[in-house]
Amino acid sequence: RSFSTAARQTLKIGLIPADGIGKEVIPAARAAIIALGSDIPKPEFIDLVAGWECFTRTGVALPEDTVQILKDECDCALFGSVSSPSRKVVGYSSPIVALRKKLDLYANIRPVVSVAPEAGQKPSVDLIVVRENTECLYVKEETLTSGANGKEARATRLITEHASRRIGQMAFELANSRPRKHLTIIHKSNVLSITDGLFRETVRAVPSLPGIDGKYDGVTIAEQLVDSAVYRLFREPEIFDVMVAPNLYGDILSDAAAALVGSLGLIPSINAGDNFVMGEPVHGSAPDIEGKGIANPLASIRSAALMLRHLGYTKGADRLDIAVDQVIREAKFLTPDLKGTSTTSEVLEAVLRKL
Amino acid sequence: RSFSTAARQTLKIGLIPADGIGKEVIPAARAAIIALGSDIPKPEFIDLVAGWECFTRTGVALPEDTVQILKDECDCALFGSVSSPSRKVVGYSSPIVALRKKLDLYANIRPVVSVAPEAGQKPSVDLIVVRENTECLYVKEETLTSGANGKEARATRLITEHASRRIGQMAFELANSRPRKHLTIIHKSNVLSITDGLFRETVRAVPSLPGIDGKYDGVTIAEQLVDSAVYRLFREPEIFDVMVAPNLYGDILSDAAAALVGSLGLIPSINAGDNFVMGEPVHGSAPDIEGKGIANPLASIRSAALMLRHLGYTKGADRLDIAVDQVIREAKFLTPDLKGTSTTSEVLEAVLRKL
Ligand SMILES: CC(C)[C@H](C(=O)O)[C@@H](O)C(=O)O
Ligand SMILES: CC(C)[C@H](C(=O)O)[C@@H](O)C(=O)O
């Protein structure tokens, strides 16, 4: 199986709606992909399971089968969202965190762009959060002991040169491809001088790596402490272009950025590795609106676009993005998170009509 | 030395301006305290050093003397802000993080309140971040090793039952004293089930502790994952009253909340323990405006108010807060962070005139 688009006759897409509104928005993304017709290879969908519901039914949150089929048969995948139990449940562990690691999807790329009032105008927010996706506190190495004063819990935060370098390369590559070519490194090295110090220095060193040969000379580099980054994101979002961050900071920053453009229901992401890409809306399983048919499908449709773009299907990706932008700009068919009154399928229909 | 206000003839206040604009705003807070006259015991100020500048001069960021004088002679203190080197410097470690630990100032209390257009009207943002101040990643236990793939850095995140319980108690006490009596526990236990699980469960268990006897029955409890909390803070700040969080989340959340009310230059905090309290503006050393005389002194004056309130000097604290609110509402004398053109001393003079 090759990652190049050249020879593909069909595009095999794993679908893992998982829990909550994931089950409502992933089918919408599926329909939008089908509507692209011959702009992409003929899509074939493979339905896969994972999630909290899967765990309560089968005792396993991420079946081995799901991972194997993704690895062996799929060209790419779309993941919905997972519910999580409110307390520690023995044997349960977040399947999305596990999938990112098992497929070595080391980059979580989250573009946050406000739709301009008119097509062609400059959006007020136009940034990409490039989040390291395999380590930091997400290694989930935790221990619980009993000390003189009661229980003590410890978690390990891992930052490696290897992972920092490859996420740094991805971030420089992205920054270099954008008009502003500006990269902000997010860290907290005033407290975490060794872990965040390593992240910061490794990313900074990317332009001097062998083989880069001045390729990133046009990229300007800035830094922000994570607390200050969240503050400035709200006060002056226009200072950011590409932001690169360790896992947890990236998680928080992308939600913060989502608030700027109106709704988490608009923000797509891809989990990308060297051999696989998985689209995933940034919103969660939204238990409060689950099953009501009013979940916003736009983040998932945009995630499909991002996935297709990553695979090289620019035309299909552009068509999806343009259709979504038009629907948002017209503001006739919007779900309640965007102060509209439409259902998931009405919004999907509106997108399909624009395609 | 006792922590009760009863018998005090004088109030001994340690002043640690430290670096950057700390040196401009702490003197302003000092002047405001002096202006309170007989509403507080006669203040006596003790000038103390710490910080990056102190380190570059003496090789020590937090002199033993500073700690000892705070412990032995001071009733309370005001801390300015510290600059930090952009790279790891051998022997340097943040003096504010060290002070919080050495004086066991386990609670960092950060009220964020928007000034209502008219006195008496309800502010749109009125919340308090109660941040655990001694552990989490701030234990600064970091290691660096060399693996097959290059350097690997690890940090320990420590969450104890003991520290979670006392910060929980502080948060419930605060929530119970406020009209809305609403407490939101911030965590990320969907990923960190053991460490954040312990934090969450320990805080939740506070109302059932022996001796509480139904005292907190009126407090409603909610929870938010930290990423979602930042998102909702921007979208619906009115849902929050008191938020309690582990150290790093609290750091990020308080900066996020500051963005909501216009400027970090307005946000005060106290670092409080059972035996000592230290006021500290939430803003940093702001190297970009250092020495220009335009730093906003209001966060420091409010920090002084918060410190006095914590010590029981309600009348003095109220006078400072009311004066600051009036100056903001009138909007005649404001520093550039609030889109004004006044200097630090003009804003201070405006506050002093209102006292
Ligand atoms: C569900 C959760 C484990 C996940 C994360 O923290 O990565 C989510 O918040 C996200 O941003 O994709
Ligand atoms: C200066 C830094 C160590 C500090 C912190 O992270 O606690 C600051 O950001 C704060 O919020 O007081």
The CATH architecture of the largest domain in chain A is 3-Layer(aba) Sandwich
Q: What is the residue-averaged pLDDT of chain A?
A: 95
How far is the first residue's CA from the last residue's CA of chain A?
30 Å
**Major sheet of chain A:** 10 strands, mixed
**Hey, which two chains have the biggest interface?**
A-B, 60 and 60 residues
Number of strands of chain A: 12
Series of H and E elements of chain A: EHEHHEHEEEEHEHEHEHEEHHH
**What name is given to the CATH topology of the largest domain in chain A?**
Isopropylmalate Dehydrogenase
Number of domains of chain A: 2
Family (chains A, B): Belongs to the isocitrate and isopropylmalate dehydrogenases family.
Keywords (chains A, B): Magnesium
Protein name (chains A, B): Isopropylmalate dehydrogenase-like domain-containing protein
GO molecular function (chains A, B): homoisocitrate dehydrogenase activity; isocitrate dehydrogenase (NAD+) activity; magnesium ion binding; NAD binding
